[in-house]
Specification:
The complex is a heterodimer of chains A (about 475) and B (about 400).
Chain A (H helix, E strand, L loop, with lengths): L5 H17 L4 H19 L4 H22 L3 H36 L15 H17 L8 H9 L1 H4 L7 H9 L5 H38 L7 H32 L17 H7 L2 H15 L7 H19 L3 H19 L9 H20 L3 H11 L10 H21 L2 H10 L4 H28 L11
Chain B lengths: L4 H36 L8 H14 L4 H14 L4 E2 L4 E3 L5 E3 L11 H17 L3 E7 L20 H13 L3 E4 H6 L5 H4 L9 H19 L15 E7 L7 H4 L9 E7 L5 E3 L2 E3 L32 E6 L6 E7 L4 H7 L3 E8 L5 H10 L4 E7 L15
Parallel strand pairs in B: 4-5, 4-13, 11-12, 11-13
Antiparallel strand pairs in B: 1-2, 2-3, 6-7, 8-9, 8-10, 10-12
Helix pairs in contact in B: 1-2, 4-5, 8-10
Classes of the chains: A mainly alpha (about 475), B alpha/beta (about 400).
C-alpha cells in the first residue's frame, strides 16, 4: 500500500488511527493493534510476502534471545550467533534481491544458460526491514540495545508500517522507549499530521509530475539515434529525475516521520536539504541519512573506519561501503557503477581537503549538484546501454540537435513544477514560513498562521483531487 | 503562541474532519460495489486474494465521492496553469480546443513496409484463393494537414506519412486500397463535424460519408451495385441526433469539460428503417442489437460513450447476422474501432458480417475463418493510429 493512495488516506489511516486512540488506555493493546494493522498494510501489496517478513521477525527474535543468552557465557559463542544471523538476513536478501542478477551474470560469463533464472519477485521493502532486523541483533551483541523478549514488540519494531517499506531505517534503540512508554501528546498529533500532509503534497504534486517528464524523456532516450532527443530535452528529463528522486523519497520520509509521530514514535530525520550541499561528502550527510548512518555503524566502523593507520585501509573500507551502498539500491551494474562513482568523489574530496578549500559557496553547490546529477543518470538507467545513450544525448554526441520546438513545448508544459521544485528543495520556502509564522507582530503572526493553514488545505485538496482523478503515482524507493 | 501552532492546529482539525467526512461519503458509494463483487464471486477466496485486492482498489478509486467534480477541478487547475497536455503526455489540446493523441516517437520509423505489405498480400491471396475479394480501407486521423494540422511543435500521434508509405507498397502489390482520408478531404465537412472534440474517433456522420463512398467503390471497382435506388446511402433515411454537453470522449474523461474550450456533443446516426439482426445474443431491430443505448447516459457525460453506441466500439471478435437479407453479401472485417459505424451501415447489404479486432487476431484462427467462411469480401481496415507493425501480426510466415 502506498501512503499517497486513496485506500490509505480514506480508509487505512482513519481506521488505524481510530483503533489506536481507542486503545489509548493500554500501550500493550496499542502495540498489538499497530502490529496487526502493519501486517495488513504489508499484505495489501503482496499477501504472500508477509510470510517472509514474519519469518524474518521470528528468526531475528530468536537470534536476539540466543545472542543475549550466549553473551552471559561466552563472547565467542555470541559472535558465532551474530554471524549466523548476518548470514540468515543476507541470505534472504540475496535470494530475493540478487539471485536473478547473479544468475544472469554467471550465464553471461559462461556464454550459455548454465543456471536457470529463478525470476523471483522482489518483496516490497525487503532491504529496509532486513537491515533493521540485522541491526537489532548486532546492537544486542554490542550491548547497545537490550534484548526484546516480546516477539510482538520486536515484530512491531520491524514491521511498523510507517517505516516498513521505504524507511527511514530505524535503529532499535531509537524507538525502544517509544515501544514501552507512549503518552497521548496533542503536539505530536498536530506536528505529525502536518508533516504527513506536507509529504503527501510533495509526493502527489511535485514528485508525480516530475516522474511524468522524467519517464517520458528517459523512454525517448532509450530509442537511441532513431529519435532526435535534443540536448535540451535530455537535460530536462535528467533534471526532472533529479527532482523526482528527491521529492519521491523525501516525501515518503516526511509521511513516515509524520505518521510515526502521530502514533508517538520519534524517527530520526532522513533528509536535510541535500540539494544545497557543497560537497558530495556533505550531500551524503544530508541524503538518506538513515542509510548512511547504518552503513557507517554496521560496516564502516567495524572495518576500522577512517581511524586506521594505513590510508590504503581507509580507502578500502570506503570502497567496500560504497560498493555495498550501490548494491543495496539494486541488483544491477549501473547501481554498482553509481556506488563507485560516489566513492571516487568522496575519496577525491578527502584527498584534496575539498570541504575546507576557499571556493565561493555557490560554485561548490553547483559543482556538487552537477556531479550528483550525473550520478543520478546511472541510478535511473536500467542498463549500461541506456546509460550510454543518455550521456550521449546529454552532450550532443548522438548526432542529436541542441533544441527543437517539441523540447520547448515540454518545458512550457512543466516549467512551473521546476520552479516550485527548486523552491521547495532548498530552504527558501521553509525559511519564509518560519519568518512568517514567528513574526513578532501578533496580527502578522496570526495572518501568517491562517495563510499557512489555507495553503496546506489548498495543497491537500489538490493532492486528493489528483488522486481521485487517478493518474501517474509511482514510488521509486519501493523497488529497493 | 508557539511557532505556527495555531496554523498547524487549525489545519489538522480541518484535515481530520474533511478526511472522515469524505471517507464516509466515499465508503457509502464504494461498499455496495464491493459487496456486489463478492456476491458475484460467491464469497472470499484466499487463492484470488491478490486479484480481489486489485479489484477493491479499483472500486475505491472509481467510486470516490464527487469523483467527476474532482476531475473538473483538476481540469480547471491544469488549464489555469497553462497546461495543454493531459494524462502523462497521452493527449494534448489542439488549436481547436479538441484533444488529440500524442506520440513523441511518431517520427521513429520502425516499420518494415515491404514486409507488412507482403503479409497483407498473403492475406489477400488467401482470401482470393477461397473465392473472396479483398480490399484495404484506411480510416483517417484527427490531426491531418487537410483539416487540422494541430498546434505547432506538439508531438501528435499522426502516422500519416507511415500510412502513405504502407499504402504505396500495398498498391505496388496490387492490393485494392480505399482511403477514407480522401473522403473527408473532399467532403466539405469542417473538422468539428468530422471528429469528436474529446475523443480520437470520427463522428457518426463522418463515418456515414465514408460508407457512402465505400458503396460507390463497390460499384465502380467490383460492379457490385449494393444500393441501386440509393435508399440506404441517403442520410435522410437515418435519424441524426445531437446533444450538446452530454458527452466526453476517452480523452475528455481524464480532464473533464473544464480543461478545454470545446464542448463535445453526442451524435447518433440511427436508421429509420427496421432491421432483423442478431449479434452477441441480441436479436431484433438495430436499436435492440448493434446500437447500444445502454452506453448512453445523458445524466452523466462521464458514463456516456457515444462511440461505444456502435457495436460497443470494438470487440476481439463478433458476428452480425442480418435475417432480413439472407442472400446478401458475406463479409469478413479485420478492423479497429473506426470501422464500427461503417459496419452497421453495411448491414442491409449483407447476410453476415464477421469481425476480428486486428490487433488481437490469432493467425491460425483467421486463416481458418478465411478458408471456411465462404466470404464474398474480406476487408482489412485500420485507422492511422494503428499503423504499427504489431497491427499486422497475421500471415507472418509468408
Amino acid at each position: 500500500m502506498v501512503f499517497s493512495s486513496l485506500i490509505f488516506l480514506l480508509y487505512f489511516m482513519p481506521v488505524s488511527l481510530i483503533g489506536y486512540f481507542l486503545f489509548g488506555f493500554s500501550v500493550k493493546l496499542q502495540n498489538i493493534w499497530l502490529f496487526l494493522v502493519s501486517i495488513a498494510f504489508y499484505a495489501w501489496g503482496e499477501p504472500s510476502f508477509v510470510i517472509i517478513m514474519l519469518v524474518s521477525i521470528f528468526a531475528n527474535w530468536i537470534f536476539g534471545l540466543l545472542t543475549e543468552s550466549a553473551l552471559n557465557k561466552s563472547k565467542q559463542k555470541a559472535k558465532i550467533i551474530v554471524f549466523l544471523d548476518v548470514i540468515f538476513n543476507l541470505s534472504i536478501l540475496f535470494v530475493f534481491k540478487y539471485l536473478n542478477f547473479f544468475v544472469d551474470n554467471v550465464n553471461t560469463v559462461a556464454g550459455k544458460e548454465l543456471l536457470q533464472r529463478p525470476n523471483l519477485a522482489l518483496p516490497i521493502g525487503i532491504s529496509f526491514f532486513t537491515f533493521q532486523a540485522l541491526s537489532y541483533v548486532v546492537d544486542v551483541y554490542r550491548g547497545d540495545a537490550k534484548v526484546q523478549k516480546s516477539l510482538l514488540n520486536l515484530g512491531l519494531y520491524i514491521a511498523f508500517f510507517p517505516q516498513l517499506v521505504a524507511g527511514p531505517i530505524v535503529r532499535y534503540n531509537t524507538i525502544e522507549q517509544n515501544i514501552y512508554h507512549r503518552e497521548f501528546d496533542l503536539n505530536n498529533v498536530i506536528n505529525g499530521t502536518s508533516r504527513f500532509a506536507i509529504g503527501v503534497i510533495k509526493k502527489v504534486l511535485l514528485a508525480n509530475n516530475f516522474a511524468i517528464v522524467a519517464d517520458t524523456i528517459f523512454d525517448l532516450m532509450k530509442i537511441g539515434t532513431k529519435y532526435d532527443t535534443t540536448m535540451i530535452m535530455a537535460w530536462t528529463g535528467v533534471l526532472a529525475y533529479y527532482f523526482q528522486l528527491f521529492f519521491d523519497f523525501s516525501s515518503y520520509s516526511d509521511m513516515a516521520i509524520g505518521l510515526g509521530r502521530i502514533f508517538g514514535f520519534e524517527f530520526e530525520e532522513n533528509f536535510n536539504y541535500p540539494y544545497i550541499s557543497k560537497s558530495i561528502g556533505e550531500l551524503w550527510r544530508r541524503w538518506h541519512i538513515s542509510l548512511g548512518t547504518w552503513f557507517k555503524e554496521y560496516v564502516y566502523f567495524p572495518l576500522g573506519g577512517s581511524r586506521v593507520e594505513n590510508q590504503d585501509l581507509m580507502v578500502k573500507n570506503t570502497i567496500i561501503v560504497w560498493l555495498l551502498t550501490g548494491l543495496w539500491h539494486g541488483a544491477s551494474w549501473t547501481f554498482i557503477l553509481w556506488g563507485l562513482y560516489q566513492f571516487l568523489f568522496i575519496i577525491l574530496e578527502r584527498l584534496i581537503n575539498y570541504e575546507k578549500m576557499n571556493i565561493p559557496g555557490w560554485i561548490k553547490i553547483l559543482c556538487t549538484q552537477f556531479i550528483f546529477l550525473m550520478s543520478l543518470v546511472m541510478f535511473r538507467c536500467d542498463d549500461l546501454y541506456l546509460l550510454k545513450e543518455c550521456f550521449k544525448d546529454m552532450f550532443m554526441a548522438n548526432g542529436n540537435s541542441f533544441c527543437n520546438g517539441t523540447s520547448l513545448w515540454v518545458i512550457k508544459e512543466y516549467w512551473m513544477f521546476y520552479v516550485c521544485g527548486f523552491l521547495v528543495a532548498t530552504p527558501i520556502v521553509s525559511e519564509a514560513w518560519s519568518k512568517l509564522l514567528s513574526n513578532k507582530t501578533k496580527v502578522l503572526s496570526f495572518l501568517g498562521n491562517l495563510f499557512y493553514c489555507a495553503c496546506m488545505c489548498a495543497g491537500m485538496t489538490v493532492a486528493v483531487v489528483s488522486l481521485v482523478r487517478g493518474g501517474y503515482n509511482p514510488f521509486i524507493y519501493f523497488n529497493f | 503562541m508557539r511557532k505556527g501552532k495555531l496554523g498547524k492546529g487549525l489545519f489538522v482539525i480541518i484535515f481530520f474532519i474533511c478526511m472522515l467526512i469524505y471517507s464516509a461519503f466515499s465508503f457509502r458509494q464504494t461498499w455496495p460495489k464491493v459487496e456486489e463483487y463478492f456476491e458475484e464471486k460467491d464469497g472470499f477466496n484466499i487463492d484470488t486474494l491478490k486479484d480481489d485486492i486489485g479489484s477493491i482498489e479499483g472500486f475505491i478509486t472509481e467510486n470516490c465521492y464527487a469523483r467527476y467534480d474532482c476531475i473538473e477541478i483538476y481540469g480547471t487547475l491544469s488549464r489555469l496553469i497553462g497546461k495543454t497536455e493531459i494524462n502523462s503526455f497521452e493527449y494534448a489540446k489542439d488549436d481547436y480546443g479538441g484533444y488529440s493523441l500524442l506520440n513523441f516517437s511518431d517520427q521513429v520509423d520502425n516499420m518494415d513496409y515491404k514486409l507488412v505489405a507482403e503479409r497483407v498480400l498473403a492475406f489477400k491471396n488467401d482470401a482470393n484463393k477461397h473465392g473472396a475479394k479483398f480490399m484495404y480501407l484506411q480510416s483517417p486521423n484527427k490531426i491531418d494537414e487537410n483539416w487540422n494540422p494541430g498546434s505547432k511543435d506538439v508531438p501528435y500521434d499522426i502516422k500519416n506519412e507511415k500510412t502513405d508509405k504502407l499504402i504505396g507498397w500495398m498498391q505496388r502489390f496490387g492490393i485494392d486500397v480505399f482511403d477514407f482520408r480522401e473522403t473527408l478531404k473532399n467532403s466539405g465537412m469542417t473538422y468539428q463535424e468530422m471528429f469528436y472534440n474529446t475523443d480520437h474517433h470520427w463522428t457518426g456522420v463522418a463515418a456515414f460519408r465514408a460508407f457512402q463512398d465505400l458503396v460507390k467503390h463497390f460499384k465502380e471497382k467490383y460492379d457490385e451495385d449494393l444500393d441501386p435506388d440509393g435508399y440506404y446511402t441517403n442520410l435522410d433515411n437515418y435519424d441524426v441526433s445531437y446533444w450538446d454537453h452530454v458527452y466526453l470522449g476517452s480523452a475528455g474523461r481524464n480532464v473533464g469539460f473544464s480543461f478545454g474550450d470545446a464542448n463535445d456533443y453526442m451524435q447518433l446516426v440511427v436508421p429509420k428503417f427496421e432491421g432483423k439482426i442478431s449479434w452477441l445474443g441480441y436479436v431484433g431491430d438495430y436499436k435492440d442489437t448493434v446500437l447500444r443505448y445502454n452506453k448512453l447516459d445523458s445524466e452523466n457525460p462521464y458514463l456516456s460513450d457515444s462511440y461505444g453506441f456502435y457495436l460497443y466500439g470494438v470487440a476481439k471478435k463478433d458476428s452480425i447476422t442480418n435475417h432480413a437479407n439472407p442472400d446478401g453479401l458475406k463479409i469478413l472485417f479485420v478492423r479497429d474501432s473506426f470501422m464500427s459505424p461503417v459496419i452497421i451501415d453495411m448491414i442491409p447489404f449483407c447476410s453476415q458480417i464477421d469481425c476480428y479486432w486486428g490487433l488481437y487476431v490469432d493467425d491460425a484462427e483467421l486463416k481458418e475463418k478465411v478458408a471456411t467462411g465462404n466470404y464474398d469480401y474480406v476487408i482489412l481496415s485500420y485507422g492511422t493510429l494503428n499503423m504499427d507493425q504489431s497491427s499486422f501480426n497475421f500471415y507472418t510466415e509468408q
